[in-house]
Specification:
Blueprint lengths: L2 H10 L5 H21 L3 H8 L3 H29 L1 H19 L5 H33 L4 H24 L4 H19 L20 H29 L10 H15 L1 H8 L1 H21 L3 H15 L2 H11 L5 H29 L2 H19 L4
Length: 385
Amino acid sequence: MDHRSASRSGSESLIRGRPEQIATRVVFFVLGFCMGGWAPLIPFVKERTGIPDGSVGLLLLLLGLGSIIAMPLSGRFAHRFGCRSILLLSCLSVCGSLPFLGYSGSLAVIGLTLFFFGAGIGAMDSTINIMAVIVERAGGRPMMSGFHGMFSVGGIFGAGGPVAIMAAGYTPFTAAVVVSFGSLAAMALVSANLLRFGAGGSFRYALPKGPVLLISVLCFVLFLAEGVVLDWSGIFLTTLRGIRADYAGLGYASFAAAMTFGRLIGDWLVRKIGPRKIVVVGSIGAASGLFVATVIPQFAGILAGYFLAGFGCANIVPVLFSAIGRQNIMPASVAIPTITTIGYSGILLGPALVGFVAHAADLSAAFLGISGLLVLAAIAGTRLR
């Protein structure tokens, strides 16, 4: 056993098992809860500021910029200081930002807040996936679909909860405060069981290569599609389909509900049809669902399309992250931050690009373009071994 393997094994031997697994699931839930909580606020931000779709894209670009900066840094800091410290600090950044997004009408304040919100989201994303790979590897059995399933559960409550709060007559600010305090309380409950170490081996930045490059590209496309539904489905429903703003969050809620259901049966599906078919068939299903949600005018049909898209996307990313944890082309301490930075940039930078397309053409054209990328992802998935 070399020094890196001994270091990794020594750290993982400290994992008791179930407490760390529960803590990992809770953090995934909190991450989905906070991201889902942002989705219903977007139409209100647009309404308070009176900005066009193209300017919304610029605001979302600030969110993505914060994340892209934070992701590789969080990987390095998690390696040095442990996952626990980075997760707690990044959660504070996210929860401190949400109330401002639910209240402020100043473009400058919203832009700065979105940067810190994105930085917190990016750091949490990268670090919790590092922790998930370590915990799954120590447990010796597949857990990644379950972990990401909790992210989807969080997305349902995060999107649906504020919709219910605002439908009851409360303000977006109140809804944002509820999401923030709920998230902080959940993190406090499991903080003692978050890992105080990161991935083993030496840390360095590196460009992906071989299968890591293909997986990174696929993750980018899948998260881009998810980010588009998160950030733009509400605006699409209000501006092009005439849906009331306080119900517009149901589009993402339907998407997240399907992802949750798909991930709850994800381990069984992977065993039944195999990882490669999960990627290929899931991408085709996601492309079809997004196409349906874009071209059908009826609200029920739109929600059905988002549900199909969510079910198609459900298990692709967990399968890809499990593959990253098993591959030996690049060390885990390098591969995990690399793929999270490239892959998750899709969920954060992609929607900003959609804003530019929407400004040049319209939102329908942007959504159809994402559907086409998912078809290409299905073709690329056939090359996975």
